[in-house]
Design the sequence.
């Protein structure tokens, strides 16, 4: 299957991305038995179910897509299918996925939520795992629970996921054994249900709120008459509370059987060994009773009276006072299984190209100051329930009719007149560059991604294609991509059996079903003004940044064991770190650091800070606006991420060797010749304004709005600007704030990856080295460090306008910051992970009060202070005092009684494995070495990284606990529903906390 991303993010024209493409290794494996030390009397054993030779693998049945030879497929006599492959990215890791063909659409009305509940119960207790033992066992194997070990339940499947680091033969054997017990024999007693249902209800509660209500109502309208309309994976409170052991056992017996299971494994072990493990632990699995057929998910059916002249079916106007306006309508067709052939995939590619052309036109209209903030079209096969084309629109104001009319006008033009060949060639170039890049990077695609790709293909009943196949198919069909063909596919995308739509508005009375239906039925007048004229632009035509710079020094950075990392300094003061290697073939990570970061802003600059990410990059550079930058980037792998840090600003991108010089030009050009367009600022203002009210709809939204501001002692630079502050912001004010900041501070560029070193050095001379002299950062600016609020036993109470059963609680302690304290910060991370384990055990596992409590540490490296340890949980309002009591009790217990050796092992081993895996990638080294061109201490800190994170003692942990978890240093924040009072912290709260933490 050649899978192209069908989603387009608002505000940007997203390039198509190939999602299902397995990497091509340097060799083609021959399926021959290696010398295995297999625990079967020492004999060499071959997988009996492997599909080799001329046998068609199960995933390619009915398909002429060339087989990806990197995978070894098998189908066992009991019906279970598997796919395994050797893949060394990252080294020593094996990624296991077990997919069951059961989701919320397979549930009966009384079973809603059972598929997801079964996922929880499988982790709770099973044949080889005692009650509540799963987290500990996976941590002992080096896996982080919730990251390396997790699961997902969708409408159509349940998938169990394990990314096992340090996958020794013993660890693999143990993992397959544990997983097999979870799938085949979970303990489904009333006792396990009593322990797990409160956790699921907490998860359901934390997902609730205005956004969830809108999602549920939209599903009911868009999928009327189908199972998908009313079956959310989380289920209902009534069905969850009504679940019993026998009912769950019946559900398990019906769906958890080998015929419904697919095991996918990719990792740093040979495929034969992986296949043998699958067969050993799942080969004798037998289902109970006859196989239950999949229920009919239903088709979208037009209501009575709908016809070609009146195709609009169900519509709804949804009023949520705190959410921004948005509209979605869908042209719906029945979903049917397909023969995943090359011809079928060629059609998919033209479909996706057709959408890309329309989306680029819509983005152009939005950028130029149209009636909508964003708009997009996307075709999707939704949960094997419908093949639909969705149109999404974000009106700028209450004139939603104009926004809808303008979007439909652009679509009508695409339906009436073929695109130009220039437009087609532009998108073809984008597709080609992505497919080429993915082929170049095939050797470094992570095993976890490869396994997920197969799982996704199984879910939609299609095959998989290797990157070279994708590129060959695409290049082989270019002659078929004509204006007439694109027009034909565009028209097919907008034909369907029924049209349904929803309009979300914060204002009652602004629209009704009649006006929405009328607007969708009204004839659309084709508007060709958004078509993009052909205009070729080349980087060669752009003005130089300046005179190429002079290198004043070039030498090894001095990182032990990696002498190839060089430090280059230019006469203008700019510095570069370069490291050319082929460990990540085809990828080059680039990061530019400059300026003062948050230190450079004044107390009245919050609005201009928040607008920067969208407006600063969107304004282009020199004579190039955003449209020209898009055009000049056609067919290239370029990026432009922007970040504001504690002590500097950053530009970042992942590119390739062929585009590295142009990537450096874009970064340097933004500093040397920034452009100050008006429209990007106004559009960013509109986006911020529309989003602001939604912050109040949930505790999480309020935290996102206010947490940084409060925990930085009400420093206005970290506040979220109000609509009034945004309204007062102007393009002229934006330029006044940002123009001097772009000129300040030394520049450091880091280039790590697969590139030609000398060509990169020459590109640096012409870009970074050619920048004009930089202004110094004023001394008073450099010294600015945000403070932490005065600790207090009192609670700062905020309110939200969401559901009455939702609250959040925060407790934080100040810590430190700066390069010199990095070793201590790493030891503090160990202590924080111990704290996190205890808090999860208390608030989730024992109390069922919070689904995902979290403790984290923030230690700014660029400034000498501003750090903190923060514990956060979402819970019921009445449980807020219990959270504070539990968190305080855990903190004080760590002060009095240091962690046990077992606790330390549970956190240090996953940290060791995390570092071992991360250190194989460019981004890890960029993060560790950024800033070292001016501060050599960062180099020394790399040498102690692993030992700092993995070697500690109970005494060291107790010392840090005494230093940071002071009773009078803690600061507390609670977010509760409007109209409620915070429950007081009483002796019963402390008693409850003591009970749930097991003291």
Sequence:
């Amino acid at each position: 299957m050649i899978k192209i991303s069908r989603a387009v993010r608002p505000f940007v024209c997203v390039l198509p991305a190939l999602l299902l493409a397995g990497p091509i290794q340097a060799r083609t494996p021959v399926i021959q038995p290696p010398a295995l030390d297999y625990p079967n009397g020492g004999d060499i054993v071959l997988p009996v179910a492997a599909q080799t030779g001329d046998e068609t693998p199960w995933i390619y049945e009915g398909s002429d897509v060339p087989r990806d030879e990197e995978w070894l497929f098998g189908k066992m006599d009991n019906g279970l299918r598997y796919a395994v492959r050797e893949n060394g990215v990252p080294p020593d890791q094996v990624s296991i996925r077990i997919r069951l063909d059961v989701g919320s659409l397979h549930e009966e009305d009384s079973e809603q939520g059972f598929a997801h509940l079964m996922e929880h119960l499988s982790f709770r207790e099973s044949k080889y795992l005692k009650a509540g033992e799963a987290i500990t066992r996976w941590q002992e194997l080096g896996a982080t629970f919730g990251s390396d070990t997790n699961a997902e339940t969708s409408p159509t499947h349940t998938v169990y996921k394990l990314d096992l680091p340090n996958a020794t033969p013993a660890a693999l054997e143990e993992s397959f054994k544990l997983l097999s017990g979870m799938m085949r024999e979970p303990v489904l007693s009333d006792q396990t249900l009593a322990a797990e249902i409160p956790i699921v209800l907490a998860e359901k509660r934390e997902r609730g709120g205005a956004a969830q209500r809108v999602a549920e109502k939209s599903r009911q309208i868009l999928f009327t008459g189908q199972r998908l309309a009313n079956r959310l994976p989380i289920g209902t409170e009534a069905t969850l509370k009504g679940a019993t052991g026998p009912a769950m056992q019946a559900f398990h017996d019906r769906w958890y059987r080998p015929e419904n299971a697919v095991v996918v494994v990719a990792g740093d072990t040979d495929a034969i060994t992986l296949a043998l493990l699958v067969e050993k632990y799942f080969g004798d699995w037998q289902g109970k009773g006859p196989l239950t057929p999949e229920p009919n998910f239903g088709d979208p059916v037009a209501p009575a009276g709908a016809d070609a002249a009146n195709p609009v079916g169900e519509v709804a106007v949804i009023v949520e006072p705190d959410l921004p306006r948005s509209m979605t309508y869908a042209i719906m067709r029945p979903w049917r299984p397909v023969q995943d052939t090359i011809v079928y995939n060629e059609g998919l590619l033209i479909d996706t190209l057709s959408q890309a052309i329309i989306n680029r036109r819509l983005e152009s209209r939005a950028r130029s100051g149209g009636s909508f903030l964003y708009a997009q079209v996307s075709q999707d096969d939704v949960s094997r329930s419908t093949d639909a084309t969705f149109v999404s629109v974000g009106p700028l104001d209450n004139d939603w009719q104009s926004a809808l009319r303008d979007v439909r006008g652009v679509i009508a033009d695409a339906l009436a007149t073929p695109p130009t060949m220039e437009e087609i060639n532009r998108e073809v170039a984008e597709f080609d560059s992505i497919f080429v890049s993915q082929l170049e990077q095939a050797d470094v695609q992570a095993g976890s991604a490869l396994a997920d790709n197969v799982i996704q293909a199984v879910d939609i009943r299609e095959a998989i294609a290797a990157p070279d196949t994708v590129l060959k198919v695409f290049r082989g069909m270019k002659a078929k991509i004509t204006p007439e063909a694109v027009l034909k596919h565009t028209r097919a995308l907008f034909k369907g059996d029924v049209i349904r739509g929803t309009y979300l508005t914060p204002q009652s009375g602004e629209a009704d079903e009649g006006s929405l239906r009328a607007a969708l039925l009204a004839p659309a007048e084709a508007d060709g003004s958004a078509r993009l004229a052909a205009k070729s632009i080349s980087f060669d035509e752009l003005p130089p940044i300046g005179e190429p710079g002079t290198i004043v020094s070039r030498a090894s950075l001095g990182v032990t064991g990696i002498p190839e990392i060089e430090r280059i300094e230019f006469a203008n003061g700019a510095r570069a770190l370069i490291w050319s290697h082929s460990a990540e073939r085809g990828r080059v990570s680039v990061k530019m650091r400059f300026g003062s970061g948050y230190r450079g802003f004044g107390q009245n600059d919050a609005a201009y800070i928040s607008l920067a990410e969208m407006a600063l990059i969107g304004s282009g550079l020199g004579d190039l606006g955003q449209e020209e930058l898009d055009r000049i980037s056609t067919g290239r792998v370029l990026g432009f991420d922007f970040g504001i840090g504690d002590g500097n600003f950053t530009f970042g991108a992942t590119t390739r060797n062929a585009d590295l010089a142009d990537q450096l030009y874009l970064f340097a050009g933004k500093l040397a010749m920034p452009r100050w367009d008006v429209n990007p600022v106004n559009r960013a203002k509109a986006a911020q304004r529309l989003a602001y009210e939604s912050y109040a709809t949930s505790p999480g939204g309020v935290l996102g709005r206010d947490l940084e501001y409060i925990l930085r002692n009400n420093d206005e630079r970290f506040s979220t600007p109000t609509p009034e502050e945004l309204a007062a912001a102007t393009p002229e004010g934006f330029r006044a704030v940002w123009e001097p900041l772009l000129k300040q501070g030394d520049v450091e560029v880091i280039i790590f990856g697969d590139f030609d070193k000398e060509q990169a050095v020459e590109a640096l001379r012409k870009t970074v080295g050619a920048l004009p002299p930089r202004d110094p950062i004023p001394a008073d600016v450099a010294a600015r460090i945000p403070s932490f609020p005065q600790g207090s036993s009192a609670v700062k109470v905020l309110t939200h306008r969401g559901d009455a059963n939702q609250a959040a609680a925060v407790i934080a302690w100040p810590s430190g910051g700066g390069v010199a304290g990095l070793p201590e910060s790493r030891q503090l991370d160990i202590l924080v992970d111990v704290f996190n384990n205890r808090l999860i055990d208390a608030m989730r596992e024992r109390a069922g009060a919070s689904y995902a409590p979290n403790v984290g540490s923030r230690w700014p490296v660029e400034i000498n202070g501003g750090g903190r340890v923060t514990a956060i949980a979402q819970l019921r309002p009445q449980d807020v005092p219990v959270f504070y009591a539990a968190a305080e009790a855990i903190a004080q217990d760590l002060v009095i009684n240091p962690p046990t050796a077992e606790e330390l092992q549970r956190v240090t081993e996953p940290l060791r494995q995390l570092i071992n895996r991360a250190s194989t990638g460019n981004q890890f080294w960029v993060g560790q070495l950024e800033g070292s061109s001016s501060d050599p201490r960062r180099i020394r800190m790399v040498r102690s990284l692993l030992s700092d994170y993995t070697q500690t003692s109970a005494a060291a942990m107790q010392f840090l606990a005494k230093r940071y978890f002071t009773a009078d240093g803690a600061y507390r924040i609670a977010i509760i529903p409007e109209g409620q009072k915070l429950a007081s912290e009483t002796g019963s709260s402390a008693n409850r906390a003591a009970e749930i933490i097991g003291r």
